[in-house]
Specification:
The protein is an alpha+beta fold. It is about 35% helix and about 20% strand. The chain has a 3-stranded mixed sheet with strand order 1-2-3. The longest helix is centred in the N-terminal third of the chain and has 13 residues.
Length: about 110
């Protein structure tokens, strides 16, 4: 059985030929059933990001994963760096805890 995580890995490997790749399933941090594959963080280090603006790197990753973002993936955190940036700092900040709602949920907005 192919997992969402393995599909993401395959697509990013093919598209960016990264020197470093991490695909982290962060679904366990959210209010979803155990074993879900809905929330991911990707760390992609690639020479293909040289001379590419930060926002455009995110757009490239989102485009590569467009099918997953239309389907099973609800949230995607992207850390896209050049090899030179990665060599300077391999630090990736942890994701914040889930607050249990959405800014589009009127019940959530009333509570905050």
């Amino acid at each position: 059985m192919t997992t969402v995580k393995s599909t993401i890995e395959k697509k990013l490997l093919e598209q960016f030929k990264p020197t470093h790749l991490e695909v982290i399933n962060e679904s366990y941090m959210h209010n979803v059933p155990k074993g879900s594959e809905t929330h991911f963080k990707v760390v992609v280090v690639s020479e293909k990001f040289n001379e590419v603006k930060h926002i455009d790197r995110h757009r490239l990753v989102n485009k590569a994963l467009s099918q997953e973002l239309e389907g099973p993936v609800h949230a995607l955190s992207v850390k896209a760096k050049t090899p030179a940036q990665w060599a300077k700092s391999q630090k990736v900040d942890p994701s914040p805890s889930c607050r249990g709602g959405s800014k589009h949920d009127p019940h959530f907005n009333k509570q905050n």
